[in-house]
Amino acid sequence: MFERKASPRWGMVIDLDRCTACQGCVTACQAENNVPPPTAEGAAQGRSIRWMDLVPNVEGEYPRVKARLLPRPCMHCDNPPCIKVCPVGATTKGEDGIVIQVHARCIGCRYCTNACPYTLRYFNWYEPAWPEELGLALNPDVSVRPKGVVEKCTFCHHRLQKARDRARAEGRELEAGEYVPACAEACPTQAIAFGDLDDPSSEVAALARSTRVFRLLEDLGTEPKVFYLREG
Amino acid sequence: MSPRPTAEASALLAALCLACGSEVKQPIAYDHRLHVGKLELACDLCHETSSGGEVAGLPPLSTCATCHQEANGPSPEEKKVVEAVQASREIPWARLYELPRHVYFTHRRHVAVARIACERCHGEMRQQTRPPPAALRSLGMNDCLECHRERGASRECATCHR
Amino acid sequence: MTSSRRDFLKTVSGAAAAAGCAPLLSCRARAAARAKRAEPPPKGSPESWIVSTCGACPGGCGIRARLVAGRLVGIAGNPLHPVNRGGLCPLGLAGAHALYHPDRVRGPLVRSGAGGSGELRPATWDEALALVTGRLRDLRERGLSHTVALVDGTRGLSRQVAARFLASYGSPHHLGGRPWNDLGPSAPLRAMQGVETAAVHDVENAAFILAFGSGWLEGAASPVGAARAYGIARRGRRSGRVRVVHVEPRLSTSAARADEWIPIVPGTEGTLALGLMHMVLREGLESREFIEEWSSGFEPLRAIVLRDFDPETVSERTGVPVATIIRVARHFASTRPAVAIGDARNGPGAQSPATAIAIHALNAVVGAIHARGGVLVPPEPPLDPLPAAPADEVAARGRSFPAISAPDRAGGDLSALQAWLEGGGAHPVYLLMSYGSDPIAALGGGERVRAALRRVPFLVSFASFLDETARHADVVLPDHVYLERWQDDPTCTPRGFPVLGLRRPVLAPRHDTRHAAEVLAQLARGVGGPAGEGFPWRDFVDVVRLSVRGLHRSGRGALFDVPDAEAWVVTMETNGWRASAFGSFDEFWDGLKARGGWWDPLYDFGERGRVLRTPSRRFEFAPLAGALEEHAPRGKAALMAAAAVPASYPLRLHLYPLLAAFGDSQGPLPWVQDVLGREIGESWSTWVELAPSDAAALRIEEGARVKVESAWGSVEARARIYPGVRPGVAAMSMGPGGAEGGTCRRALVAQAGALAALAPGRAGSARADTWVRVRRA
Fold first, then answer.
1. How far apart are CA C465 and CA C102, in angstroms?
2. Most A CBs within 10 Å: which of B2, B55, B99, B101, as the mutation test of the A interface?
3. Which of B67, B85, C412, C432 is deepest in the core (most CB within 10 A)?
4. Which residue in B has a C-alpha nearest to residue A105's C-alpha?
5. Does residue A178 belong to the interface with chain C, where contact is any CB pair within 8 Å?
6. What is the pLDDT of residues C693-711, one digit of tens each?
């Protein structure tokens, strides 16, 4: 009745050769996940919340300058450093590999934001606020986080809950492509592939075997489930 | 990793009720014992999406109208229903149950798929002659977890939290 | 319910133990108590999706709007739409914030203070319309209908309705006021091919892309369409990966994504194009077939290019090494198909028409015109034209006066308007309407532009947001935002396929606004005479329905469908079958609504007559040769003189676009604002980028407050030291700007202000010749 078969291992492959750094993924994520509209003050202090962020890295000297613009969601590590330091068990890794934050449990100690080598956990410094009617656009599928908790990318886990529920009610297994996070859905160049890394026939599994593949800070042993494909 | 409902968390859940306090008043004193107990109407006759939807749903006027075009008896409460039906005025039923935003729960999953009886969570509604001012059963996360444990359902945080 | 632990820790410490009310299943009263905080719609509310077309910028992407409990809670791309295939950019994704924006104009406004004071008070529609109608009728009765002008940033039927209004009313002044990335007719196509349309570049099929100027990806006519084509050209096709070389003074996002970045002196892209052409000709790599069979007037151009544009001269002028010029020229000419992409944006920072013509000629020389992987001329969708507009003697007389500008001259229209108002006009303008456009901001804003517009005694705006022009207007007749209105959206894909997107309301109008095209019709009826008779339609949907009958009758093309269906349509059409699958017109109309639109995935490379409409029916090199010949007497010396650096303003200003800053039809959105300058880590400020060497010489540190000064004015900014800027250049981003004082618009205003201060009223010319100096504030 409940899932008995081996759980999928959700993962993402981002092809930097397709990406144009348009940041559609960034806004798609913020809209989907009820991230409060950022403010100038917050941005000046580096407090804007972007579960999916475009991380710039400029190297070299004129005229041989290279700029790498890296879309960066949570890595959903197989060996996540963040969950080890949480004193209240507010962050856990599920059987399907998604590292989740339970906002209702979080006490805002921010150990995890420091433990994350990718610095992709975000603290809510402010009461969530929407100027006047902007709050009408809130997504009913995602909770609004209060001030004082840490939040992060969930691979749009609520979409998995809904998709799985629908499949279960119809008495079938989840189909490939039925569950896709908002960033992957919005990407104009289809640079973001998402799926079950353990399913050898899936697109992500095939891409993750590419010769162009790399992962961020692999030497730390975090085993990220977000793979990148380099240009060229 | 399974969650650890600590003593502190339980105290927290209990404390939340302090904020609640007020009673829920229904516009009409609906008799569940009469409808469900005696007339043996199914729950999802009125709570239409209680087996297939996210929330159970409150009955629309059209459902009441199937029987209450005219009065079936002397009850003053029924009279209110008939008046509403004749005036095509929806009855503003008050919602008794509301889950926190950060909980993902669907009736579809629990009723249609897992076939859990309504009473398991909602108590003996079929015995109630008047609308209860508060939920019959006090449910906390522990209750969810206990049932999930019994039935071998997932106890991962991410299954229910979002 | 979002509070729990923290509320608990804050308030409960020491509180008494609780009673037995259900903790998880909390009661409704609690939610009501918290109603002040923004809450999503209640759980289990019914959900629906409506297919429409984005209108945040002129890109024309398909969208699906998610509605829950009557609220717009999300926008996603329409996977069937051939322009974006489900993808969207930040602006489109933040569309719900445009709908719910606190700065929207909520009903008609009428000026309450002195002229130009910008003080407005709410009015009823009757009052506001009566004011405008009265003026219009009065001017027409006095034989002054030609003193009415309309600045129009729309396209398709909205534009036709506006044109109709002017034709029946009796005014020759229909001015283009298009948003920055809505290209409109391309100057090179008009001059060299005699075609009045925008050019598209078949990026999807190109093997080599040579992009000139800033941001062909972020500044594209359809940023999502361009990005999608780029993704396919890189990794989504069997023919291998495209190579991209990008020429720009700054390492922009487009440059960073290219295989090679060639930093260049701002404004000299045309010279480099001619230098490349020189090498192509010298090495005999030109396409003889195209030059001999398709073109005319090539020999004079060849002589000039070979004489004046040798790599050494061009290198000195452009700052590009000789070896690079030779290498890129060889690569460009010997890779097929290769295409050179200019920067066809409108407005401030736009490339000059001469530069665009030089780049277009470079494409012609290698035969990349009307060829797979080259420059294409998209056909128009076969829409039914509206019946001829009725006119009387007054209308005919009004139309006979000289026009401020020929219709639709892309970016030039507004400059012409400014010059006309500043005293160069044949007659005054007594009434100006702005529709889908903010002429003051589009001209760069600033005191001089405002002063010019103040010479118009009566200004009418149809703006949904209080933009700069609306603030100075006498009457504001607010339009719906794009999510609330019916509209046609004719566009095309990068492969040159015509597309007609249907825009339909996803929600009823939130405020007391009206469809501007319907208001124009109402004004026409109010004026009476032929103008009134010209609008027999009940509402704008009727106009759209009337026009799309042409699509239905043509039997060509197909409703939007999954990508796999494209091959089927192409097979049908190439075999001469017509898609009778449309059924009746009502079925076709329902299909348009459900799928989002119509397209025709076929580009006929055989039909030469459609794309070469010059008198000679050939591609004309003469416009370029003529322009160069004009400068010929001074030759090389003139080229060099132009490269001289003025002593007091040693830096060239380079203005570049940011994808997220497009679309001046709506208020700035906070999410979009927050991602503006991500590549340099700036978003809410005005910043100027300097090369490390320049910054060191000026003793300016990273992050310092500086003043950027030009001969016309100065602006304060934050200095950012960026190794991706060519030394000798000060780079600033452009925002579409807008009025000050709104909720979320600070930085964009600052950037528009920068333009106003540094290059006032110099739309179209700011890029090449604005010199600045930067010093610590």
1. 9
2. B101
3. C432
4. B9
5. no
6. 999 999 999 999 998 888 7
